[in-house]
Amino acid sequence: MSIAANYLAEAASDALRRGRAVGVGSLAILSAELADADTLAALETRSRAGLIITARRAAVLNLANQIAAAAPDPEPVWVDRPDWLDLTGSRAVADPVLDLATPFKGPFRTRALASDTASARAAIALVKHAGLIPAVYAVPLAGAEIAVNCPSEAALALPASVARVHISSRARLPLANAEDTQVVAFRPDDGGPEHLALVIGNPDVSQPVLTRLHSSCLTGDVLGSLKCDCGPQLHAALAAIAQNPGGGILLYLQQEGRGIGLLNKLRAYALQDQGWDTVDANTRLGFEPDERDFSLAAAMFKALGVSNVALMTNNPLKVAGLATHGFTVSRVAHDMPPNPHNAAYLATKRDRQGHML
Prior knowledge:
- This protein has helices spanning 3-17, 37-43, 55-60, 87-94, 117-129, 152-156, 218-222, 230-243, 256-259, 262-273, 278-285, 295-303, 316-324, 343-353, and strands spanning 22-24, 27-31, 50-53, 77-79, 110-111, 135-140, 149-150, 165-172, 181-188, 195-200, 209-215, 248-253, 308-312, 328-332.
- The protein is an alpha/beta fold.
- The strands form 2 sheets. It has a 7-stranded mixed beta sheet, sandwiched between helices. The protein has a 7-stranded mixed beta sheet with strand order 8-9-10-12-11-13-14, sandwiched between helices.
């Protein structure tokens, strides 16, 4: 794929985050989350926009029994918008946080994507990459006013199947529990957020290195949220690596909310307040239970010369994710005691995601 096509996909994702219409394949699309009356009207100058949602969200809305919506993941679903399905109503279709406020949606009609299938899949890939709710308004591209136009195959390549990173900077960073620490900053080649490696002590990379993959959690790591176990896991891992005679490495990855982003994670929290568990909250939003890319961690470790890790985790997906990229992985148990606010969350991770708790 050309460099120009890759750039256009990134530019289209950025434009969607700014609430602008973009072209992808045969469609012009607009984020359902950020659309307002003016931007939707501008998109609909030639035809009424349909609403493209993920198959997971369509299943929540009981659309999977319609022939046009019966394709399995990852095929998205096109929902026609009759006159009664206005901006407010269609936003409730896209955003599950509004489900209880608008419980009687429909009846809906879906249409087969046919030749628009690749474009619809690419549209969902773009809004996911932008950290938006995975739903878009869509019209045929011909004649639509758009900010950026990118090929479907370029959008579907987001993120790359194998991440590429380079080291941007290094500095000494004494921590409260690990004074002998160096921070190594990585920039991914796809223009995404920066990630950090905390190298504690002087680990021998010819031997298994004690490591932790830690996905950023602003609410837990910084604000001290009791809804998860992220903050305690982070600080316990840093302390354990500092006490290890060989030191080790903690990767701090900007993959908030298992890869769905901070704002969508907060939407998932709102759904949990309505009674849904952490898995159902993600899938009601239209995401997979875990959207993280473990090739990113693999690329960072390789840049540090690490290929054999003793991984502090209770998540089998992390073990499998590194092993897939050629790493020798042994698991070191790493779990925190529950509190009254996260006991159900931890039980869901154990019972529905296979965490070894």
